[in-house]
Amino acid sequence: MIKKYLLEKLIWILFFCFLQGIFLVVAYVDSAIKISSILYIVFLSFVLFIVFLVIQYGREVSFYRRLEEWEPNVDVEIIGEGNTPFEQIVEKTIKQQIESTKQELNQLVVEVEQGKDELLSWIHEVKTPLTTMKLMMERIDDNALREQLMYEWLRVHLLLDQQLHKRRLSSMENDLYIEKMDLEKLIIQEIQSLKTWCFQKGLGFDVDLKVFEVLSDAKWLPFIFRQILTNAVKYSGKSDIKVRSYHNNGKVVVEIQDYGRGIEARDIPRIFEKGFTSTSDHKDQNATGMGLYLAKKAAVHLKIHMDVESSYGVGTLFILTFPHKNDFIDLISM
């Protein structure tokens, strides 16, 4: 800070030295003036000037030091009041700018929340005609046409469901209710919702559950399974998808194994990134890269550890490890 202060006052220091130099030149030229007296005056001036700089340094630097140490996320009042008119101008300008930014930010937050509420309302409204469409499609006699329409309906339904949970994710912690859940019922229900797609692709499920109950949230856990099962069906051929559960070190583990195209080794660390799609299969134009990203985010909130093992061309294994009962104390208390 001393170096910065001297640089700030450099022009004044040079001007002072220039004046002292003029005094010495005048004394040297004018023989009537004693050079010893001028040297004494110059020396005394330098001493007083240095004392003056030291005093001013203590007065002026304190404000700028607080300003330098101030973090933008900390209350601006920590800067304190300026001592000099210029410091007061700086202080006033910063506080006005921060107040203006806060107002703009609050307005943006309100607008975002309104947009979020409107989108959620729209999604719920769209679900009603979608349900009606499904009932109408189930009455179509042409099996091939019915299955094709049901497949397209399912795609729209899953995309809307994804958007709905994406908007709710930011406030997920305030919307959790941990309870005992029937794991078998949940998985069968999610498989049933994909049956049209499964029939169309000619694949099935092999469910082998050794554990039938888990502690989790009834809205978000089905969403996590839905994203994983949807991916498994999407990238599998005519082969069964295996789902099994068991205990491991006192924790419930659920594995979902498909024998589809698998994931490239270079892609595995990135599959949970927002918007990431395969780097090798560029034909997946319809992939949004959001499903596993949202599933991972939700799993973190539910304290579910999610692992992935995959070999390209062989298949993919998702491993969901649920926490101990005691690990839910923090979640239940929220």
What's the layout of helices and strands?
Blueprint: H1 2-8, H2 10-29, H3 35-69, H4 85-137, H5 143-168, E1 178-182, H6 183-193, H7 195-201, E2 205-209, E3 213-217, H8 220-234, E4 241-248, E5 251-258, H9 291-301, E6 305-311, E7 315-321, H10 329-332
Parallel strand pairs: 2-4
Antiparallel strand pairs: 1-3, 4-5, 5-7, 6-7
Characterization of this structure:
- By secondary structure, the protein is α+β, with helices and mostly antiparallel strands.
- It is built from ten helices and seven strands.
- The strands form two sheets. A five-stranded mixed sheet has the order 2-4-5-7-6, covered by helices on one side. A two-stranded antiparallel sheet has the order 1-3.
- Helix 8 (220-234) packs antiparallel against helix 9.
- It is elongated and about 125 Å long.
- 16% of the residues are buried.
Which features characterize this protein?
334 residues, alpha+beta, five-stranded mixed sheet, 10 helices, 7 strands, 57% helix, 13% strand
Helix and strand element order: HHHHHEHHEEHEEHEEH
Spatial shape: elongated
Mean pLDDT: 83
Strand order of the largest sheet: 2-4-5-7-6
Total strands: the figure is 7
Helix run count: 10
Helicity level: 55-70%
Strand content: 5-15%
Quickly give the structural class.
Answer: alpha+beta
Sheet with the most strands, sense and barrel status: 5 strands, mixed
Intertermini distance:
46 Å
Rg estimate, integer Å = 35 Å
List low-confidence stretches.
Answer: none
